[in-house]
Amino acid sequence: MRRMSTRALLPLLLVPAVALSACSTGNASDGADDGTTTVRLMAYATGGFKEKYVKAVIQPFEAAHPNIKVEYDPVVSSAEMLGRLRTQKSNPTIDVVIMDLSVAESANKEGIFTPLDPAAVPNMKDLSEHAKVRDNFGPGVTFDNLALVYNTEAVTTPPTSWNDLWDPAYKGKISISAPPQLDGIGLTVILSKILGGDYTTSIDPAIERLRKLAPSVQTWNPQPDTYTLVKSGQVNLALAWNARAQLQHDQSNGALDVVLPKEGSIMQVNTINLVKGSKRASDAQTFIDYALSPEAQALFAAEMFYAPTNTLAKVDDEVAQRTVMTPEKLKTMIAVDWNRLAEQRAQWTEIWRKDVISQ
Amino acid sequence: MPTSSRSSEGGTRRGAAAALLAPGLLALGVSFLVPLVWLARMSLNRTVGPAELQTAVSLRSYIDVLTDDFVWEVAWHTLWLGALVTVLAVVVSYPIALFLARTRSRLRGLLMALAIAPLLTSSVVRTFGWLILLSDDGIVNSALSGLGIIGEPLTLTNNVTGVVIALVEIMMPYAILAMIAGFGRVSKDLEDAAGSLGAGRLRCFVRITFPLSLPGVLTGALMVFVLTVSAFITPRLMGGGRVFVIATEIYDQATTTLDWPRASALSVLLLLLFGVFLVLYQRLFRMVEGR
Amino acid sequence: MEDAYLALSKLTKTYPNQSRSAVHDVDIDVARGEFISLLGPSGCGKTTTLRMIAGLISPTSGHIRVDGTDITNRPVHRRDMGLVFQSYALFPHMSVGENVDFGLQMRRVAKSDRRRRVADALDMVHLAHLANRRVSQLSGGQAQRIALARALVIEPTVLLLDEPLSNLDAKLREELRVEIRRIQQETGITTVFVTHDQDEALAMSDRLVVMSEGRVEQVGEPWAVYETPKNRFVADFIGRTNMFDGRVAGRSDGVLRLEAEGLGTLSVRAQQTDRATATVMVRPHRVRIDPAEQMANELKGRVVQSSYLGDVESVVIDVNGVRVLAERTHSGRPLTVGATVGLGWGDADAYVIPQ
Amino acid sequence: MRSLSEAIYRTVAGILVVCSYLFLLAPLLVVFVISFGASPTMEFPPKDWSLRWYADLAGNGEFIEGLRVSLLLGLVVTVVSLVAGVTAALALTRHRFGGRDAVIGLFTSPLLLPSVVLGLALLLVLGPVGLVGTYPGLVVAHLSLTIPYVVRTVMMSLNAVDPSCEQAARTLGAGPVTTFRRITLPLITPGLVAGAALSFIISFDEAVVSLFVVGTGRTTLPVVVFRYVSNNTDPQVAALSVVLIVFSLAAVALIERALGLKRVLSKA
């Protein structure tokens, strides 16, 4: 009851503002007149994701399903997506969301997302083990991995190992997005593994090692766009994500390059989710099924180097080499319990700030 | 003579006042009061697990915040930064303020505008200026190494040093404005009188000018302190992720960790802190004024 | 007065949170063409009364009628009254001509007509040459004349003057006094004038209304109010005066004899005879110093203070501990303080205050 | 003796004043000079001069879009603040009513609120009604920052206007609306101009509150610059900064002419 009353109060107080907005926001109508439906997809805004996803997945989908339109609502980060979804929980305008698995878990628990119907999304059965999520909640739609990017002009010998971060040559020219960003969390996991331990038991050795890195780091700021920092030579070495880095490499004519350190890395999974209470759940699942289909997965991999989650996807070897999907690479990936990590995120963030960044 | 003779006719007066106030109150209500109430309400909700928001009426967030060592550390750091910036900003602003309060130069208007104009320039732009000035290969470092003073560049950005330098500059116009306003009692005549009684310039300054300018200094200090404690842009852009203050913490909790109740509780506590400082300041001000 | 043009009846103004009414049960009738002054100390309610007539303040109760029409609830801008303010209240962003023209514009008077009437109004105050001046370039006297022209150009039913002269220096004030009275008589406009300056009120008005603490104390022609004040307040407020309280000791042939402390027996011509005590008023200029002829009241005293003012000499004399004010008009060398002098006045020079 | 100590005092004081001014204006001066340098490395002083960064600026879609949003937003915020602020100032100066002091306090209190707190509060409220990243949302977000200044400047002007001018107009036959239009409005124009300039520039420069409420929708110029500066420092931002500085200077000049900067800006 309380829930109801507080929720009811706010819109009432904001009537004037809503009235103001009514004339300008112009939400896409459901277009009932011509029989087409508009499915609203929320996904990443930055790093070329939107442009490539529209080209590789949405346009072909719309061509195949002339009565379904997909509108892309770009948002900077998964956290911000969750924030937005929360505020419209009672009356969602978004139908499908692509976001990081760790954040999606929270949304699943909060009841923002709803499990998919395996019958409506047949492609689910062909997904890799890594992509499957409990209870048929939104499965993985892309695979990626944490990597190192470097400025090719300043760095003559490309880094090969995470240990290269401690190379004095990079002193003051390193950028790492500290926790709560996933980059820093991931680095903690990787270091724990390299140092012969396991992040689930103790991260003390990793933190100890990171303390020595601290003075060399120029910025710990969460950069939505680390790639520009590297391209412009502001820093020479940075933690970054493979797929976007590959794209940036091509777009910057090689000013930046990306390596997967030999010790391996962690995988990052973007899941595709159905919003609970979606008024277009059936069309939304049609789209999700397409997004998980071998064709769509292959096309997007070719455009942006996210590895497909569908095992049947056929990807060019050249492209495949630049994604995380090759068997050799997959072997080096460290298994991560994202659910567990999400719960420890706050604690790790605090440890980082106290013991690493303050050095 | 009744002062209320300004009013217009009839029983419509109260109605007229209400009608005139309506747009302003509505605008402030929507853009200020409702959000604050909503913020206070949100601070009573709970976050469970990683980031799951639960509607509740609970002081959990406050307890969590207040029993968290890290929060205390950040708060302490914020206050320390505020105090340091306040002292420095007041010191560097004092000469300008005193000069502007007393000069009879024809250029006074222009100089006044020059001192205050930066206030109306975005702090993003001014912080950017400092990034250029202070970066490793920036102007300050190249000047210093050019003069042979330093061998290796000083790290002046992406750390607390840069934040302090930039904040001091950003706060200067506020300090200058507040001080000029508070320098009303500092008159040239008093100094001249002291001079005629045989006081040297320095003694004159220490015994007459400075004590009289204290209320202005206090007002300026409070203004700078309050603004520094809530500064966000500069610590974020200049701090290199190393400088944690309450403002950046609120931003992170609100946008990255998505712990809204915690962010709201922090905000409410920051507001309370402000209230305490305002009261303390008024006490102090009265003490100094009443001397 | 049955033929009253402007009639205030039982006019009362009470402000919330104030126990005393600012104006209480005020009844004033003003004849057509009459110049009437509201006079009183500050806070007596005269300005409030004027502003109620203008419509700037709404009365708590009572009525205002003009020419028989009740206008109590008519809004300001439909009252057709010309109001001249103490602060002139000229519109600083308009020229002199535009200021005068404003009221005509509001009345949608035709343009050609307006030009003529503005010129006439400026002519009337002898400032036709200033029509294009900025208001800020006017002197105080000029500004007040313009304000007068602006109020008159609309041919108001009543002209209301709210202490119009008090911001001016003494000489200008006297000049404008005459000027205002002249214009008022030329136009024959019914005028209500508010002032705290009794000289102004006495000099200009057909009749005075003396007010105190929100009430009307006395209404009458200036000379009547001056010579025969109705009570102590009026006697004291209008002009300087001596007032002596005494016990009635006897009466004969319309002359009352009073025993006053320190002064002995005083004789005064008076009608009323039925009270045991009375207050006698003697204006200082009626008191003779060292009188040549025999007078009904003769006293001796010591000069305590003497102020030489040129045309008169104002003297304070101590008579057995009672201070008596006197004036000498043909003085020459002023009296020395401490000198003993004789003083006296006739029984007709004194007046028994009725209340 | 006296003249010597006087001379020393004057010299020391003079040096201090000049140094303080240099420190205060350094970032703006540097940005200004760099923006005209030809080299992308931001050498100072530049060896060659060029306007290329300004040309780049014109071609940068993100900046131009940000500028467009900020200009439009600034205009709308200014108009709304003027309407709300002028009516409120009228009520507060021309009417006596209970709780007047409290209302005045309410109209000035947003000045003391930390922008991060306001930003968060607005985010929490604008989110559920779908106004994050929209023009109406941004307008609402900026109003509490600008209205206090408009109320203050207009009240200052109104207090300087002799109320008997308005009363005179009323007795001359002008109704309330005509009186406001013909008398009050022209007389408070300086306050309106100062208030408008101030609220425009405050909205135009506002970064923190906007950062919370832009989302991925309409992004204001300061937010674009903030995000850009997080990753880059190049002369293009310097050129953009100069554009922003020019807007500020224009506002400063307007306010100084209309009412005087000092009076308008003190926060107390």
UniProtKB/TrEMBL annotation, chain C:
Asked if ATP-binding is a keyword of the record, the answer is yes
> Which GO terms fall under molecular function for this chain's record?
ATP binding
Query: Where does the secretion signal sit in this chain?
Result: none
Q: What's in the keyword line of the UniProt record?
A: ATP-binding, Nucleotide-binding, Transport
Instruction: List the InterPro entries.
Output: AAA+_ATPase, ABC_SmlMolc_Importer, ABC_transporter-like_ATP-bd, ABC_transporter-like_CS, Mo/tungstate-bd_C_term_dom, P-loop_NTPase, Transp-assoc_OB_typ2
- Superkingdom as given in the UniProt entry: Bacteria
Key word ATP-binding present: yes
PROSITE patterns with a match to the protein in the record: ABC_TRANSPORTER_1, ABC_TRANSPORTER_2
- Name this protein carries in UniProt: ABC transporter ATP-binding protein
Residues of the ABC transporter domain: 6-238
From TrEMBL, chain D:
What's this protein's name?
ABC transporter permease
SUPFAM superfamilies this protein is in?
Answer: MetI-like
- According to the record, the signal peptide region is none
Organism encoding this protein: Microtetraspora glauca
Q: Which CDD domains match?
A: TM_PBP2 (cd06261)
Q: Where in the cell is it found?
A: Cell inner membrane; Cell membrane
Q: Which UniProt keywords apply?
A: Cell inner membrane, Cell membrane, Membrane, Transmembrane, Transmembrane helix, Transport
| Topology versus the membrane | Multi-pass membrane protein
Does the keyword section mention NAD?
no
